[in-house]
Amino acid sequence: MGKKIVIIGGVAGGATAAARLRRLDESSEIVMFERGEYISFANCGLPYYIGGAIEQRDKLLVQTVEGMSKRFHLDIRNQTEVKSIDKDAKTVYAKNRLTGIEYEESYDVLILSPGAKPIVPPFPGVNEKNVFTLRNIPDTDRIKTYVDSHQPNHATVVGGGFIGLEMAENLVERGLNVTVIEKGNQVMAPIDPEMAAYVHEELRAKGIELILEDGIQSIEDEGKSVVLESQHRIATSMIILSIGVQPENTLAIDADLEVGKRGGIIVNDFMQTSNPSIYAVGDAVQVKDYITGSPTMVPLAWPANRQGRIAANHIYGKQEGYNGTLGTSIVKVFEYTVATTGLNEKRLKMLDIPYSIVHIHPGSHAGYYPGAAPMAMKVLFQKEDGKLLGAQIVAKDGADKRIDVIATAIKGGLTVEDLTDLELAYAPPYSSAKDPVNMLGYVASNMMNEDIETLQWHEVQDAVELGDFVVDVRNPKELEQGYINGAKNIPLDELRDRLNELPKDQNIIVYCQAGLRGYLATRILTHNGFTARNLDGGWKTYSITKQLTAPALS
Q: Could you say which of 24, 42, 44, 61 is catalytic?
């Protein structure tokens, strides 16, 4: 006899679980409750509908109630909110939001997929008519209707995360002037500061006013004025709050299910909660980090879809566990793509995990073929065994496929040395004979096997103050782009003939434009009895962080 399975919430996790459950068993009764009108929609596409890149609203609807009900023989009850769970009686208490009718529904197995909700601090003015958050289709309709009907000339976006930057870009595309306010010292927390610097530069180049290390204190003048903690005032026409999200965990807490420190519902590898008859998936659950195994919260689409399938499989006896979340993500910021996977430096430092770093700046494909774009790439790894810990890429072209290769390498247990041995597709319009991923591997392998010493952009000043001697091995013409004050310029091809100009009683810092010539110079100096370190990422990485000269990726 089939089971009766009740699912609370649709979209990625709940809808995926429902479809998988039906494919595994035709006889089970599957009931899906959804508080809103829409059960399955492309929430990642919402900003692009507001901006006009997606022209037809219907394109956002992945599945309709009618279509999904018929195809998978589901009892879908949208516009119905589950108010409570009685885990002992195995019932849920639901209320139809349109009719007001309240009733109980029994279950054999319950799946929670409530998602996450926007964080809305209780500052004065937050309920004004021109203050918005973006989570679902109704939110999207409200924002788009406001922009279409009021023709605002300025928008303030509070929060520099993925949704905030996507909304900022799309509002610029609609012709608005935009201010982005970020409480931290950088946008896009999953990437490190020197990588975020490229994003800052791109935002400002596109006319966005970017305010960092300041937060919103209040909204005044009927939503027409934003007052910051610094007391700076911004005149505005509309406000988008994208401060972050928090798990929808009220049902779980009221049912006395275990939740983590950040409020995520605690689940095992099979997505079971502390009550084995209740599963939870998606943005509301606490997961384990794929690399460290430590608890984390990662509200992304891929984990939600994967977890929905795993929960459905386990309900029908399949012992397939969730291995953890790597956090692979990508976002478009005007002309740039920003991609990341695994751990960043901030997280590694917090966990006290030793790591080494490589920055490189290769072209997206062969330089002699038109259209090649410079890339900024960063990989984090353990020097003793080459274990890959994470990677970040900012580029106009080619970031997506490279981050996917590295994410796959991490999942496959490959090391940075193994990256050199990846046979990746090559033709001049698409890559180079040595793909940028191979190049990351080669540079990291040099550090491991040749004992090459490097230093990072933020370590230069301290090293100089301690007496290090700086050598710039670029050609004189390149110095017009900027240089480190006090550096001695000796072009690489002249270095062997000018070794007598360098002190052997001082440590030497070598740098070039992107790192390759610096590496070659370091080898020359080391073989000649000098103690030398190469500035990782060269002038490009150093200058973007110091906001010196022209864009380092242009």
A: 44
